[in-house]
Amino acid sequence: MVAENMEDLGMNPDEALQDAIQTLAIQGVDLSGQLLSFLLLPCFIILMRYLILGIVRCIPGVSSTNDHPVNQSLDALRSILSLKDDRKVGGLDETLDEELAELLDKLYDLCRIEGSNNVSIATRNGGVELLVSLCGAIQGRLERSLVSALMVLSSIVHDLQSTESFRQGGGPKIVMNILKGSCKTVAILHGGFSVISAAATGNEVLKEAFMELKVDELILQILREKVKNCPQSLYDAICVLLMPDDNRVVASQVYGYARRFAKIGIADALVEALNDDLNSSSLVSACIALKAVTVNAMVAENMEDLGMNPDEALQDAIQTLAIQGVDLSGQLLSFLLLPCFIILMRYLILGIVRCIPGVSSTNDHPVNQSLDALRSILSLKDDRKVGGLDETLDEELAELLDKLYDLCRIEGSNNVSIATRNGGVELLVSLCGAIQGRLERSLVSALMVLSSIVHDLQSTESFRQGGGPKIVMNILKGSCKTVAILHGGFSVISAAATGNEVLKEAFMELKVDELILQILREKVKNCPQSLYDAICVLLMPDDNRVVASQVYGYARRFAKIGIADALVEALNDDLNSSSLVSACIALKAVTVNDEICRSVAGSGGIDIILKYMDDGNKGGSDRAVIKACCSLLAKIMSIITTLSLRSPENAALAVEAGAGNLAILAMQKFPAAHQMQRQSCFMIRNLVARSPENRTILLNAGIEKLIRRAKGSHGSCKDAATAALRDLGLDDYDK
């Protein structure tokens, strides 16, 4: 019964269930218990027979689905279209107009009954497809019926299902053809634009469909012809088409549509329409439409020309208008401010309004000026071939690139976005390829600029498609002893591979791991921090688009060729604080299994880490270094913990290799490092849980006292410490 109410009468699930319960209650059937009363069972059986026969309905007088007035109206319309009255669709004439219009008006009235489910019933029973076909059949002939059909269609196109039926049935094209053929008939214009408003509300696909059919040009034509009493629905349609209201879409195209509206003259036409004697409702709609066109066009301009994101672009547009005295907080523009607003719109259409003082066109922006100057060098505008670039250009080019780098580092600006949107990535990649091996200073500057503008999916894709990975790798291989170029090159790798699995793979295919090993082994003086950062980025599973990242395999490959050992050796060098932190984090990224842990321990890595941590306790290392070392040590302990879980064999090997002594030493030397104290407790627990021999060894080494101290000192260690004491076999573990 619930299903029947939902499907035939268009109720939602709650309404359908309530109606079914009420209907049964009328028959004396109580559904409050789990079992039906046997005294009422005969009555219930009879009721079920009525149900099967389709007799039970919640509407008095409706004995079957076909008896519902909405379905009766739809069937009558189908009769006309399916030639049941022996009149061909192509032969519909005015003798039918009255009959058809009355039928449609009745259906329209049914769909407007507040609180009813008539609209849902109509859409569920093919009403949208039927009305679209009918409009196509009678356009150009039966004017009154066509107006009524459009109004019904506008009332039943109301949700995703109905708008999709409208689109698949060719609705956009049919409605546009009707409007183009009757652009001076106000009633048809009103109906047609009402349909557009209903269909495009919350539906980016249908907005795009109408724009592809050049609805903007049709609107401009109607506004310019100054059709008397131009319908309010036209202004409403403008607002809907320019409203970013489809939550399924990440980046709406409506701002671009607004700019297109303004470019062809709709803003001016709307201003002229305001001069006509509009009624109050049309005046309100016209003002809102004007606001939608102009403000969204300004937003589009800020996004496309100045590289702002939508929120920034909208805020800038509002502020720009506020400077002109235009308050957008209300729905109506003050007529006192209208002349000022019209002047502003003219500036907008001419492309003069910008948010940066002194910038009168896109080419005047300092970022674009810098990019154009670089293009001049690459496009031979200065009569010097790219292949012939020499040191006389190095100074000029480096200064230009440094200026661009400074612009891209201005916090809060949109200069990076402007650079990427205007071909900056492709240009810098080409420039790096052109000057590598010759202009060292310029190459360093170019790499730093490139690392600053490769920042999102669009820019990283431009970098990849432009051959960026191969060019950068060639530069690094050719200059692997020049620290400044290494720093710039690995900065680009870090920027490009962040959050991008495809570029991580591209660099790995170009054997970036072998290059890193070569540089680490050659111990280039002051090996740049960006090299360690690049290791971390390449081994970070940070691309949310990928289900299964390959970085674990890359880490094993790094370790297999010797990078883990090389990083341990690097830690022995006199690294500065920031490089030391990065090296520790890089080693942590490479250490992903027990084999690598043993390799790190065997090469003295743990001793070095403990030394740095001990120095930190004595004031010799800063907190960042201590934190990085603690994190690395905790990672190694975590791997041992995992391998020892329910595996006495692995636990025995771990203790034999010194894991127990590591935990004791770490807990003794760094009692304040709560995360490491906690991880030590976890590791101890797994080492002794199924190994009585390990319990004896560790208890004799004094582990109990250290665990109890951690338990009392750190709340985060309480559970781990209690479990470790219990598995050590201590009766008072919970004290």
In words, what does this structure look like?
This protein is an all-alpha fold and 735 residues long. 69% of the residues lie in helices and 0% in strands. It is built from 42 helices and no strands. The protein is flat and about 105 Å long. The model is unreliable at 32-63 and 323-361 (pLDDT under 50). InterPro entries: ARM-like, ARM-type_fold. The chain crosses the membrane at residues 35-56, 332-353. This is Armadillo repeat-containing protein 6.
Reconstruct the topology from this structure.
Elements: H1 2-9, H2 13-26, H3 41-52, H4 69-81, H5 94-111, H6 118-124, H7 127-138, H8 143-156, H9 160-168, H10 171-181, H11 186-200, H12 204-212, H13 215-224, H14 232-241, H15 254-264, H16 266-274, H17 280-306, H18 310-323, H19 338-350, H20 366-378, H21 391-408, H22 415-421, H23 424-435, H24 440-453, H25 457-465, H26 468-478, H27 483-497, H28 501-509, H29 512-522, H30 529-538, H31 551-561, H32 563-572, H33 577-590, H34 594-602, H35 605-617, H36 623-644, H37 648-656, H38 659-669, H39 674-688, H40 692-700, H41 703-713, H42 718-727
Helix pairs in contact: 1-2, 4-5, 4-7, 5-8, 7-8, 7-10, 8-11, 10-11, 11-14, 13-16, 14-17, 15-17, 16-17, 17-18, 20-21, 20-23, 21-24, 23-24, 23-26, 24-27, 26-27, 27-30, 29-32, 30-33, 32-33, 33-36, 35-36, 36-39, 38-39, 39-42, 41-42
